[in-house]
Amino acid sequence: MPRTSPAPPAERDAAATTAITGVGVTAPNGLGTEECWRATLAGRSGLGRISRFDPSRYPATVAGEVHGYVAEDHIPSRLLPQTDHQTRLSLTAAEWALRHARLDPAEIEDFAVGVATAASAGAVEFGQRELQNLWSQGKDHVSAYQSFAWFYAVNNGQISIRHGMRGPGGVLITEQAGGLDSLAQARRFVRKGASVIVSGGVDGGLCPLGWVHYLTTGLVSTESAPDRAYLPFSDAACGFVPGEGGAILIAEDARHARERGVPALATVAGYAATLDPPPWTGRPPRLGDAMANAISDAGLRPGDVDVVFADAAGDRKGDAAEADALRELFGPRGVPVTAPKTMTGRLFAGGAALDAAYAVLSLRDGVIPPTVNVAEPAPEYEMDLVTGRPRRADVRTALVVARGHGGFNAAVVLRAPE
């Protein structure tokens, strides 16, 4: 089939609709989009004691690990020596997302297809292994691939190279907020004339070097029981649980998708980002501004939102700030709120991308996934938190919220296709 080309500049539309046409998920509670979604609606958690290394010497021992993934079943042998676990998960999620979108990049002019994903630090596990080789055996035992395999842009680059995508690209490094920032960047590229942008994020640093990095935040839960370790918006909240994995989403010009005969799963209707002021200023956080501005960018009002996928920090201060922002924008118990990341942990650059994938599936199936292990939110939050089991609802508009360590806030409005 001949390649299709992007529209010439005169025909480009600055307000072109960006559709989500494919989703690929690699998560602690499920490999593959539908497997993860079934597990999430059933309330099956992927949290457990760390098995990839001995955590007994550390104060925190619970994480969200991706189990059952065999890299050799998904990754060409030539790529195995130059990638680590998180990059392989990212390549697999991208492959699944492209397949879900029924998209063969070889059939599209290569400069019309780009990659804009999120990252937090890079391939920490690969870097740790090569540093250990350097210290224990010397420089001749360090892999030549170390020069790029640890790099924060490695997932983005490997996806682009594997599929011959030479269009616009970039890497968003805003920690948890990055998964939403990448969708916004994809929307910008589509509005500038790109046909397809691979977006989202997959992350992972569940190795001793990465684990120490997470612990420095002082926010990681030290509770050893997996079902008690991550309880956002609860009176018993005691911190967050780190995890690995995430989601890749195919963002596509809606007209291009229609021409291919592929239905939109959702549209990226609105986005906004803010940065919190430095803590020593005493000024309030700006998460609420990000939410309000994203809704305004979508041309909507707060009452049009059917569900909020919360950031869910898991500590009392962070939860209170988010609850305050929600109450100010929507009123007390004014909108259903959910935090399915209680089944995966916080996945850093992959976390908000996975929440966006959940939101797309919620729009598709008319159901809100539950927040597990939390019986009810703390009463002072005045929040309609979906707990226990999924809630059937006419979900047409979803707001996805994320905060990244360092004061980054992002919000995306996703809408069901017309």
UniProtKB/TrEMBL annotation:
<dbReference type="InterPro" id="IPR014030">
    <property type="entry name" value="Ketoacyl_synth_N"/>
</dbReference>
<dbReference type="InterPro" id="IPR016039">
    <property type="entry name" value="Thiolase-like"/>
</dbReference>
<comment type="similarity">
    <text>Belongs to the thiolase-like superfamily. Beta-ketoacyl-ACP synthases family.</text>
</comment>
<keyword id="KW-0808">Transferase</keyword>
<keyword id="KW-0012">Acyltransferase</keyword>
<protein>
    <submittedName>
        <fullName>Ketosynthase chain-length factor</fullName>
    </submittedName>
</protein>
<dbReference type="InterPro" id="IPR020841">
    <property type="entry name" value="PKS_Beta-ketoAc_synthase_dom"/>
</dbReference>
<dbReference type="Pfam" id="PF00109">
    <property type="entry name" value="ketoacyl-synt"/>
</dbReference>
<dbReference type="InterPro" id="IPR014031">
    <property type="entry name" value="Ketoacyl_synth_C"/>
</dbReference>
<dbReference type="InterPro" id="IPR000794">
    <property type="entry name" value="Beta-ketoacyl_synthase"/>
</dbReference>
<dbReference type="Pfam" id="PF02801">
    <property type="entry name" value="Ketoacyl-synt_C"/>
</dbReference>
<feature type="domain" description="Ketosynthase family 3 (KS3)">
    <location>
        <begin position="15"/>
        <end position="416"/>
    </location>
</feature>
